[in-house]
Amino acid sequence: PSSSPDLALAQAQKILREAFGHREFRPPQDAIVTRLIGGGDALVLMPTGGGKSLCYQIPALARPGTAIVISPLIALMDDQVQALQRRGIAAAALHSAANAPDAIEHRLRAGALRILYCAPERLLQERMLRLLRELSISLFAIDEAHCVAQWGHHFRPEYRQLGRLRALFPGVPRIALTASADLASRAEIQQSLALGNAQVFVQSFDRPNIRYRIEQGSGAREALAEFLRRQRGAGIVYCLSRRKVEETASWLQSVGYRAQPYHAGLPADQRSAHQIDFLSGKIQIMVATIAFGMGIDKADVRFVAHLNLPKSIEAYYQETGRAGRDGKPAEAWMHYSLQDLLLLRQMIQQSGASSEQRCAEEERLQAMLDLTEEVGCRRQKLLGYFGEKLDQPCGNCDNCLHAPPLWDASEAAQMALSAAYRSGQRCGVQHLIDILIGRDTPRVRQAQHHRLQVFGIGRRLPPRDWQQVFRHLLARGHLQPHPEGSGLILHASSRPILRKEQRIWLRSGTANTCSPEPGRRS
Ligand code: ADP
Ligand code: ZN
């Protein structure tokens, strides 16, 4: 290895050009490879497509010995190995489905491999560790490092043992890489992989050409129609269910759009035909479940519209990230309703996952909701979630472009909570609104709720403002669906609101709700 960073960088640049055919590093690739070549550890956070592979492949070629790359996905390993072999680099993969593992081990022993991809369970076999200790190892790269996060979607128990490498291979640099890690999982990665001395590199997750817009309320179709009137280029409309995909696609066709559905329930030939037509521009709008998009290489997608709430910020970021890959202006637009939220909460509660996992899912959903409720710059909030600080408001999101006028909903929130409490925490939103505005419906009568003190105390506010208040209380978790029953119960976090210690500001005049919420009785 080179002794000075300048020499290391020069060497890395030479490899970048000669072995990989690229002209320049994309920062912070240069700093990362220099660090590794110099023998230091690194933790790399980079969005998908940012260029993580080169961060370890180049130091692997610059340092003597064999580099070991730990990856959880067999398909990914095989892809990478083939790409390296095409460039004439001696690489192989050892995993449960590997061809001729003995021959690979033989080459490894002979020092004939520059890069060995290895599944974590394979690496952690004592025999394998002993073998590696006899060899010259240039570095360890731990790909998809978020797999150590215990309550994450991708948890792999073996990943948590990789911290042992530090003691077993002192002096061998280690690099961990991931495209998805909020601040909490980042700390978990550093701790369980024993990367206390690692330098952390974060490539910005910012996509400045994407304009973020989030609307809430009912009347999703009208809102979508309004949004689409301003769109010229190609786009994706995401829906939560297959049925909604089908309905939305036929509706768009009926109003004259070149739109087609895409979901896992369609016959394969239809799916691929729609995909080809979308790539070629024959179809303008693909209406899809989130099954669509992975591995779709279309740089000029001009908009991504969500007709439902994604279940996490990671998902929102991934999905909206399919817009504007060409760097030209693009739109990420979302419209969601109270029903989405209740549905997602229900799905989490009934998922059959462990209670810790459900809690983690709840937290992820909560972060997504905080983004939708944000009254300041969306981009600052979004990037903040990935631990990135944007000093100035972005100027390219709905809130920056039109500072939302706000109204003080503190008193209304208090009334809403009281109504839920006094009616015995057994009622749903619509019933509570009926109580608040003093509607004498048969159900109200039957439950004797017209006798409550809170009956009619909110008649000064229109029902749609009440919808908004409840949406906020639900979004923030102050009100929660009863775990078994059907009503809404108060969470401890609602106390400061009831005690008038916490003020609540909501945006005024946003809800484009002329039409009633679906399923609402009038
Ligand atoms: P990630 O693993 O972060 O998703 P990859 O390592 O697969 O990203 O790289 C994404 C693409 O970017 C690849 O096609 C790769 O060849 C290309 N790439 C990476 N770094 C550079 C660079 N410095 N110059 C040009 N292309 C690059
Ligand atoms: Zn902004």
TrEMBL record:
Keywords from the named record: ATP-binding, DNA-binding, Helicase, Hydrolase, Isomerase, Metal-binding, Nucleotide-binding
GO-annotated biological processes: DNA recombination; DNA repair; DNA replication; SOS response
An example Gene Ontology CC term for this record: replisome
Assigned EC number: 5.6.2.4
Domain annotation Helicase ATP-binding: ranges: 33-199
A GO molecular-function descriptor: DNA binding
Root EC class: isomerase
Reactions catalysed: Couples ATP hydrolysis with the unwinding of duplex DNA by translocating in the 3'-5' direction
Transmembrane parts of this sequence: none
Region span, Disordered: 509-522
Family in the record: Belongs to the helicase family. RecQ subfamily.
PANTHER family, per the entry: ATP-DEPENDENT DNA HELICASE Q1, DNA HELICASE RECQ FAMILY MEMBER
Protein name: DNA helicase RecQ
Organism: Igneacidithiobacillus copahuensis
